[in-house]
Design brief:
Layout: E1 2-5, H1 13-23, E2 27-31, H2 32-36, H3 42-51, E3 55-62, H4 72-90, E4 94-98, H5 109-125, E5 129-133, H6 144-154, E6 159-164, H7 165-169, E7 186-191, H8 201-208, H9 219-227, E8 235-237, H10 242-246, H11 249-264, E9 282-291, H12 294-306, E10 310-315, E11 320-325, E12 328-333, H13 339-347, E13 350-358, H14 361-370, E14 375-376, E15 389-391, E16 397-401, H15 403-414, E17 415-417, E18 428-437, H16 443-453, E19 457-466, E20 469-477, E21 484-489, H17 496-504, E22 507-515, H18 518-527, H19 537-546, H20 551-559, E23 563-566, E24 570-576, E25 585-593, H21 603-616
Parallel strand pairs: 1-2, 1-8, 2-3, 3-4, 4-5, 5-6, 6-7, 7-8, 9-12, 13-16, 18-21, 22-25
Antiparallel strand pairs: 9-13, 10-11, 10-17, 11-12, 14-15, 15-16, 18-22, 19-20, 20-21, 23-24, 24-25
Helix pairs in contact: 1-11, 5-6, 11-16
């Protein structure tokens, strides 16, 4: 059973339950605070859950219970009896008891076991069960192995163990001994991941948990050990996260389902779950589709022509132009009754779709279906191709193009090709990467979408200094590195990404195009009239002091406003155009040897130059 605790989501309790059901969960843990703040009765919560097809699998948490002195011990049993009545009203038979954090708690395992035995005996009289969980900050029980020892000492059929991956892995505890616990004695398993942060475990837990697949804890080791127990009960999320509390309820619930599907397939030796389709092989970005109106067509056409692109075709039935250079295809969509037009109404002139080259679109679609991605199917004219597409996290489209279609079939079928007479090639070879701007609360959601649906890996996180605030950047990258998608967020509204988000609702802001000779390419596009983002001489003076560069090379990059980075892997040269119509901009890049980063060391220089130009042109 796939389940989630209501604390994991934003909103009121009814909204949470509806989102949980729509996402595809069948179980829910009711976090007591959600119930206390709800205006209806427990019976109404039960009725709503049943109408949505949800089973309430637990009421939680019951705190500071075991090994307490009198009179607190007697009060705890009175409190428990009240909770049992509440559980009956809710229609759940299970209560989660977390280990005691009170300073009054007594360090005595036998006493703790005796208290839990009596609690289980009282629960059994009502037909109920209880589970004991070790909190990572429990006063005397913080290790799941100690909790299991206490449960064994309690030795009651209505008393079981609750395992939580965060409480175990945040303390660096070895999950391997989980495999020795009988599955029938585990009453509930909660799973949560987290980024690796240097802070006290309570704060880490209360603010920074995330879904497995979004963090860095060794969740796979936990799942492999769990599979060996024979556990067949619910797998549930319990996530405390500030961003989740601010994010749309439905989107977070869907992220959770994707995470659980990913988790189930980490248990490779378990027979409980259906294996996932593997990911296909990728071969780069095949095309980028822009949505624009006739008014913006001429200036954009002038810019991409100066970049060396040639207008080579016209769609047979739609108001769409095709431009090409090397392996790069730009599709300019002017349609007014289409998905592109709808996207333009929300985002303005923008990138509304991209095409991924994949060796097996059917396999990619099977994986996307398994992870509950949203499919898209638009109108297709007679004789035209239908290329499978998915909706991305912000609503743009991701087309899946097979090798034969990518090579020639798509363009020859759907377009009237009329030669390559316009423009002059500038040596641009392929799309190096595309950068997106998204809401600050959506970084983990986007990362999980690409990890699950496409099997992309998340790169390192970077803090980039804009003159008006910080920008956080993290890329998702195909395993062969042919598709790279940096994701950028900024809580500051006046940064470059912040303004783009507030004015255009986010999306693609940067399009990086690769060349094998950036000096030749820059000379050609500048001769064609392309303006480059000016980089101050101070940058090059500092570069000469930091890095031993030949004087001719230093002067060559200075004259062309090229930024430079070097790592142990290789070298990176990159230059930028100004913003087009205040929306997106192009980056020209050359990678040498095995450089795999994105020039983050130069981001502050680039952002400052963009801010300066925007101010000069009255755009900021």
């Amino acid at each position: 059973m796939r389940a989630i605790a209501t604390v994991s989501l934003s909103g009121e309790l009814p909204d949470k339950l509806e989102a949980i059901a729509r996402a595809g969960y069948t179980g829910v843990e009711i976090f007591e605070n959600d119930l206390l703040s709800y205006g209806g009765s427990p019976e109404e919560v039960r009725a709503l859950a049943e109408s949505l097809g949800l089973k309430i699998i637990a009421l939680q948490p019951f705190r500071d219970f075991e090994a307490m002195p009198s009179p607190q011990r007697e009060r705890n049993f009175e409190r428990a009896e009240r909770k049992f009545k509440l559980m009956k009203a809710l229609g759940t038979d299970f209560m989660l008891v977390c280990s005691n954090t009170s300073p009054l708690c007594i360090d005595d395992k036998e006493r703790a076991a005796a208290d839990l035995y009596e609690l289980a005996e009282r629960a059994a009289a009502h037909g109920l069960r209880i589970g004991f969980e070790a909190l990572a900050w429990g006063r005397y029980t913080s290790d799941y192995r100690d909790a299991w020892d206490i449960v064994q000492r309690g030795n009651h059929p209505n008393l079981g163990l609750v395992l939580d991956s965060f409480h175990m892995l945040a303390l660096g505890l070895d999950p391997a001994p989980v495999a020795d616990i009988p599955g029938e004695r585990i009453f509930l398993v909660q799973v949560a991941d987290a980024p690796l942060l240097d802070m006290d475990v309570l704060s880490w837990s209360r603010h920074h948990r995330c879904f497995p697949g979004q963090g860095r804890l060794p969740i796979k080791d936990f799942m492999k050990a769990l599979a060996k127990t024979g556990y067949c009960g619910p797998l549930s999320h319990e996530i405390f996260n500030d961003a989740f509390r601010a994010a749309p309820t439905q989107a977070t619930a869907l992220d959770g389902i994707r995470s659980l599907i990913l988790l189930e397939n980490m248990a490779t030796n378990s027979q409980m779950f259906t294996p996932l389709p593997s990911a296909p092989a990728y071969d780069g970005i095949h095309f980028i589709e822009f949505t624009l109106d006739e008014e913006s067509a001429k200036p954009l056409g002038k810019l991409i022509s100066a970049l060396g692109f040639k207008r080579i075709g016209r769609h047979r039935s739609k108001n769409i132009d095709l431009w090409r250079q090397g392996d790069i295809h730009f599709v300019l969509n002017f349609e007014t009754d289409s998905f592109a037009h709808t996207f333009r109404l929300l985002h303005g002139i923008s990138v509304c779709a991209v095409g991924f080259r994949v060796n097996d679109p059917d396999l990619a679609l099977a994986r996307a279906r398994a992870f509950k991605a949203q499919f898209y199917s638009g109108p297709v004219g007679e004789g035209e191709m239908r290329i499978p597409a998915l909706r991305g996290p912000e609503g743009s489209l991701i087309y899946l193009v097979d090798p034969e279609t990518a090579k020639h079939k798509q363009w020859h079928t759907d377009f009237e090709l009329f030669g390559e007479s316009e423009g002059q090639q500038a040596g641009l070879r392929c799309v190096d990467h595309i950068s997106y701007v998204l809401q600050p609360t959506q970084m983990q959601s986007w990362q999980l979408f690409y990890k699950t649906v496409f099997d992309f890996a998340a790169g390192s996180e970077h803090e980039l200094a804009d003159p008006r605030g910080l920008v956080m950047s993290q890329a998702v990258i195909s395993h062969d590195q042919s598709i790279r998608l940096p994701l950028n967020v900024s809580p500051a509204r006046e940064t470059l990404p912040g303004r783009f988000l507030s004015e255009h609702q986010g999306g693609v802001q940067q399009i990086a195009l690769a060349t094998d000779n950036i000096f030749d390419t820059i000379d050609k596009i500048v001769a064609n009239g392309v303006e480059l983002l000016p980089i101050p001489d101070n940058y090059y003076d500092d570069l000469a002091a930091r890095i031993d560069l030949d004087e001719p090379l230093l002067e060559a990059i200075r004259q062309r406003h090229i930024l430079y980075d070097r790592t142990d892997e290789g070298e990176f040269f990159h230059a930028y155009t100004p913003l087009f119509a205040g929306h997106f901009y192009f980056e020209i890049v050359e990678r040498r040897l095995h450089y795999s980063q994105f020039g983050a060391a130069n981001a502050a220089i680039r952002l400052a130059a963009q801010a300066r130009m925007s101010k000069q042109r009255g755009l900021a």
